[in-house]
Amino acid sequence: MIGSGLIALAAGAAGISILAALAYAGFASVSENEPRAAAVAFTLAVILPVPYLVAGFADFEGRTLVAAILLSFTVLVAVVLAIPAGKKKITEDDTPKTRIDERDIMFSRNLLEVGTERFREYYEANPDKKQLDDEFRSLPGLLGKGATMEHPFAFPATHASFFTVEHLRSIVDGAVSPDRVECDPEEATGFVKRWALKLGALTVGVTKLEDYHKYTYVGRGPQYGQKVELSHDYAIAFTVEMAKEMVDAAPKSPIAMESAQQYLESGIIAVQIAEFIRSLGYPARAHIDGNYRVVCPLVARDAGLGEIGRMGLLMTPELGPRVRLGVVTTTLPLVTDERRRDHTMIDFCVKCMKCADVCPSKAISFDNRATIDGVRRWQINQEACFTLWARLGTDCGRCVSVCPYSHPDNPMHNLVRAGVRNSSLFRRLAIWMDDVFYGKTPPAGELPDWFKAESVKES
Fold it and tell me: What are phi and psi of 26, to 5 degrees?
């Protein structure tokens, strides 16, 4: 009799726990401005605990059996999901065999001016790109007049951030102090990391600077067409968070504002760190928006900050692709981090495909990774992606906004992240749950409240 009562009470306690967990999920979703997720969580909070609460606190024939079945089922599911499974090691070689010419990326091609000698020379050497690029040139362009997502305040605000970044480019490098300070690599590394976090970085890592990290030729700025000469030994990579409320509105104008702002924030941090290292007597260069000499996602990946996902961006364990990157290269002796080769993240991207589902330009592939230039990876259609940007006037960001990894850093989502890292079964469940709570193809979010506080009209 006592045993039966305990089984029933355990079922009731399980029901209360389920109710509390779903209620927390509902209120957390409200705070995240996720009305669908909140509605689903509150609805489930009303439905799912009922059998447990009835078995725990109602008096009916067969109560103990029902309670035992419910508890057994719950424990079985919990055990199955908790058992580590599908945690494979990545053994394939994903080290790039070739380097990238920055002149070929869309940002560089966008800067080519029709009628100039540089324009003529580029398309004589790359005639296959001319027709594709003529299409985006016929559109309003990023922050362009008449773009689909044009906003009378947001576009100038975005321009203001990029304007400020542009003025940082002249100080990415500089004179090195002749009075060199002898530094212990471990102490120097620890200080740089702690200071970067204090300055606003989310995560920081260090890697040896490899040849494949570097562009072959400069594609932007006054040194266009020059060979990239960078003899530094180490690279410090860091991430900065993009505000979720701004990203959620993608592809509307807040995404462009937030991208520009975080390029600025990462640029400021990088410039400060580089100047600090030069003052110690060691060469250092900041790599910021529009003035890169390295491929930042590859550097950040090798510094242990994440993996390259389906959308071609760095996927961080903390916030997925909802970050911007900064890099500082230097000769200052540093302690490098181990690259964290994360099969669970790659496997999640293989199974999820939500970014491909929502991509308005269909630039993201649904296929598995392919061997491209000797490396197994995903590759987006950069021409299709950038042409959409030129039409919208923003950098779209739909892929970033819907990625399940982009959810906020809080106990609810961190529990899911832990499960994703632990079990392939949990990864499948997490993808299904994300579709249930947020939708397979979630609609773009509304403008942030502060953003739309007043209705404005362009004069």
Answer: -65, -50
CB contact set of 181 (below 8 Å; sequence gap of 6+): 280, 281
Distance in angstroms between the alpha carbons of the first and the last residue of the chain = 80
Residue 240: pLDDT over 70:
yes
Residue 301 burial (CB < 10 Å; 0-12/13-18/19+)?
A: buried
Q: Which two tokens stand for residue 79?
A: 């055990």
Q: What gap in Å lies between CA 218 and CA 237, rounded to an integer?
A: 20
Q: List strand residue ranges (DSSP E) for 129-227, in order.
A: 203-208
C-beta separation of 397 from 259 below 8 A: yes
- 420: amino acid identity, one letter: V
Nearest CA among 302, 300, 286 for reference residue 230: 286
> Which segments of 275-428 are extended strands (E)?
284-287, 307-308, 314-315, 323-330, 370-372, 375-377
Quick one: DSSP state of residue 142? Answer: T
- At 337, the pLDDT band (50, 70, 90 cuts) reads very high
Q: Is residue 22 a contact partner of residue 45, using CB atoms and an 8 Å limit?
A: yes
Residues in a beta bridge with 226:
none
| Euclidean distance between CA atoms 114 and 191, whole angstroms | 48
Torsional sign, CA 85, 89, 91, 96 = positive
Strand partners, 227: 217
- One-character DSSP codes across 425-446: HHHHHHHHHHHHHH-SSPPPPP
Phi, psi of 72 (to 5 degrees): -60, -45
Eight-class DSSP state of 152: T
* φ, ψ of residue 456 in degrees (nearest 5): -120, 150
The alpha carbon of 156 is separated from its chain's Cα centroid by a whole number of angstroms, namely: 25
Q: Could you report the per-residue pLDDT of 398-427, keeping only the tens digit for each? A: 999 999 999 999 999 999 999 999 999 999
On whether the CB atoms of residues 39 and 2 are closer than 8 A, the answer is no
Tell me, what's the pLDDT at 456?
47
Using alpha carbons, select from 222, 202, 215, 311 the residue that is nearest to residue 265. 202
Q: How many angstroms separate the Cα of 454 from the Cα of each of 160, 196, 320, 387, 410?
A: 21, 36, 33, 31, 31
Q: Sort strands 284-287 and 323-330 into parallel, antiparallel or unpaired.
A: antiparallel
d(CA 326, CA 292): 10
Instruction: Look up tokens 């392939």; give the residue.
Output: 424
pTM: 0.93
Place of tokens 């970085």: 201
